[in-house]
Amino acid sequence: MAGLCKVIVIGNLGRDPEKRYTQDGRPVTRFSVAATTRRRERDGEWADHTEWFSVTVFGRQAETLAERVNKGTRVYVEGRLESRQYESQNGNKGFSLDVVANEVVVLENRQRDADFGQASGEFESAAPARSFQAVGSPAVREDTADLEDLPF
Question: Strand 131-133 relative to strand 93-108: parallel, antiparallel, unpaired?
């Protein structure tokens, strides 16, 4: 029986996306997303808490996003969590949880909204939101094909 590992993140890009290509020529785009929530502290005051997520997108959607979004763009990201271990250049070992996206929807672009005279942070926009979806695309199916070989 297959399991389920799904994550949804709504936040702002923390840096411009980086597009690269796999050895077999498939495009891969990576970017970070900051999702901020408010919570009450022990002293009773409300404080913002920001979580950072590393997001990876494959295929045609990776190319489209690399061209159309930049730091500050508000996005909806849906995908699965994938863990990885790494070793830094100075020899330190680390662990990371990354989001492998199968859908990314642009909710707002701060620059575009500024061009229309709107304050950033609002969901309403004078121009319709652009949507980039890769659900069911061959690139996404190829990515998940190796999951059936997992022993659990």
Answer: antiparallel
Amino acid at 124: E
Give domain 7-147's CATH architecture: Beta Barrel (2.40)
- Kindly report the average pLDDT of the chain as a whole number: 79
Q: Residues 23, 29, 65, CA angle at the centre, nearest 5°?
A: 135
**For range 42-68, the mean pLDDT:** 95
Please check the confidence at residue 129 and state whether its pLDDT lies above 70: no
Write the CA distances from 98 to 107, 130, 133, 139, integer angstroms: 21, 24, 19, 18
For the four alpha carbons of 18, 24, 26 and 31, in that order, the dihedral sign comes to negative
